Amino acid sequence: MFQSFEDHTDPSVGAPRAALLRSELKRLALDGFLIPRADAHQGEYVPPCDCRLQWLTGFTGSAGMAAVLGDEAAIFVDGRYTIQVADQVDLGVFPARHLINEPVTDWLSSRLRKGQRLGIDAMLHTVREVRRLREICSAAGAELVLLEDNPVDAVWEGRPEAPVGAVKLHPEKYAGADAAGKIARIQADVAAKGADACVLTQPDSIAWLFNIRGSDVSHTPLPLSFALLPDTGKPTLFIDGRKLSNSVREALSGLAEINEPSGFRPALEALGAEGRAVMLDPGLAGEGIALAVTGKGGRVIEASDPVLLPKAVKNDAEIAGSKAAHVRDGAAFVRFLAWFDDIAPSGELDEIGAAEKLEHFRAETGVLKDISFDTISGAGKNGAICHYRVSRQTNLMIPVGRPFLIDSGAQYVDGTTDITRTMAVGKCSAEMKRHFTLVLKGHIAISSARFPAGTTGAQLDTLARIELWKAGLDFDHGTGHGVGSYLSVHEGPQRIAKTGVVPLQPGMILSNEPGYYPEGQYGIRLENLELVTAAAGIPGGERPMLGFETLTLAPFDRRLVDVALMTASELAWLNAYHRKVLDTLAPHLDDKSLSWLEEATAPL
């Protein structure tokens, strides 16, 4: 199994560990310290050695921050985790605050006093974050102290070692372009920005650029590393040499100088001492990186990571790989659905059993590299926790008479998948069907949208919500995120969300996943991956249009559709999609699964 169901979180750790940290802060003459859920790469998935927020508080979500002052503390999470944080954290020690509605900077502004010293780890907060923290400290008459050594590490007994996962070369037939050509392309962008060099801090950017994949974090093939890319000449890759076999080192040495991570800061300082202009992404690079350059006399040019957009716009080989991966994954998922439909109505299946069986069907493809994230297998009230992670402590039997939500994905060498389906277990109520249908209508609105070039995800986001809004309902997460090519299942810069400001381009892959989660009852989410494509012209139209091609192949549960709420065009979309699913997957299914799929995709 790629997924573990053990839960090592314990709310009771909060009080003694907060006390340990406060003792260390006192020793350092600090009045407070911030603990983000981040590592030096600012990635979503961090290795155990960098899970400081979890160690301190017990919180395991993918976004959050804790603030510890001398006599008060708090934990900040977004709307995805308001239920989870109450289960995992001692709220008497770390009262929960909404990361968006009451950001940590607002909380600090009302508490910092003149002369106080607030500490941060300079590598764990981005340049942009530190700029704001400096502003609020200055306004309060307090001092922001940037530390090279993290005080949490000083009191963390038994902290895990840094990972040394093996690095592999990613074949060009899947990458679609050779690494030398990619490097030259990015160097041209660096030179155009007037920079002498560019810092790459994102492991997925580095993996894409050098056509490598790693195994340093769970479920995402990332090689934790940094890179310095000059405007001309060989880049330098800063990576633990223990991750490189002789053959991989030899291949990479033809592209870059190989150095240990300990050489990263001296290299930055050397550029600074030479008065060089170094480009970095202020929303992704730690403040410690900028200080290493400017502290020695260099200059920082703030610009977006130049790899993000080229990586997001998939080439022909990456698109072909994603399509092949979705056919393979779709067949495995349909086999799971047929099995689930046979077993779940007995009332003898639990959340872990469902997740294990789905991974089993994917493993039977013979080419599964990993799952792309921990499967969200949510029965009853757990389904209402939109980023729920099932554990042996929380595992529920799947109840009859309620929807069951399963959100999962796979990593194959040719593509990354992510799919959510909500299935009826037994007879569900009319209200459950209404909620399901409102979510489905939002999903169809996104999938069938046609929009002009230059449209952003923020402009599309409303389409997924409008039917829910009409009913006074909503969901507290984005509608869609970008997806990588055998890389991160959550990839920027593209997204369909209120914060999605990057124009969508052909070749981008995004999720389409509206939902609804009545607290304590059940959850509904419906997710496909969509490829942005050039759309057919509209008669009488004046502008070229873009649209989506759906990649995911699996039926929606017809038993939960309230046909009376659907328009004729929505039913036509659903029936056409189901026809495509059946026609595409039929050659890849055994007789039993095919018979089930034929019934599951019958026209409404």
From TrEMBL:
<dbReference type="GO" id="GO:0070006">
    <property type="term" value="F:metalloaminopeptidase activity"/>
</dbReference>
<keyword id="KW-0479">Metal-binding</keyword>
<dbReference type="GO" id="GO:0005737">
    <property type="term" value="C:cytoplasm"/>
</dbReference>
<dbReference type="InterPro" id="IPR032416">
    <property type="entry name" value="Peptidase_M24_C"/>
</dbReference>
<feature type="domain" description="Peptidase M24">
    <location>
        <begin position="323"/>
        <end position="534"/>
    </location>
</feature>
<feature type="domain" description="Peptidase M24 C-terminal">
    <location>
        <begin position="544"/>
        <end position="604"/>
    </location>
</feature>
<feature type="domain" description="Creatinase N-terminal">
    <location>
        <begin position="18"/>
        <end position="145"/>
    </location>
</feature>
<dbReference type="InterPro" id="IPR029149">
    <property type="entry name" value="Creatin/AminoP/Spt16_N"/>
</dbReference>
<keyword id="KW-0031">Aminopeptidase</keyword>
<dbReference type="GO" id="GO:0046872">
    <property type="term" value="F:metal ion binding"/>
</dbReference>
<dbReference type="InterPro" id="IPR036005">
    <property type="entry name" value="Creatinase/aminopeptidase-like"/>
</dbReference>
<dbReference type="InterPro" id="IPR000994">
    <property type="entry name" value="Pept_M24"/>
</dbReference>
<keyword id="KW-0378">Hydrolase</keyword>
<dbReference type="Pfam" id="PF00557">
    <property type="entry name" value="Peptidase_M24"/>
</dbReference>
<keyword id="KW-0645">Protease</keyword>
<dbReference type="InterPro" id="IPR000587">
    <property type="entry name" value="Creatinase_N"/>
</dbReference>
<protein>
    <submittedName>
        <fullName>Xaa-Pro aminopeptidase</fullName>
    </submittedName>
</protein>
<comment type="similarity">
    <text>Belongs to the peptidase M24B family.</text>
</comment>
<dbReference type="Pfam" id="PF16188">
    <property type="entry name" value="Peptidase_M24_C"/>
</dbReference>
<dbReference type="InterPro" id="IPR033740">
    <property type="entry name" value="Pept_M24B"/>
</dbReference>
<dbReference type="Pfam" id="PF01321">
    <property type="entry name" value="Creatinase_N"/>
</dbReference>
<dbReference type="InterPro" id="IPR050422">
    <property type="entry name" value="X-Pro_aminopeptidase_P"/>
</dbReference>
<dbReference type="Pfam" id="PF16189">
    <property type="entry name" value="Creatinase_N_2"/>
</dbReference>
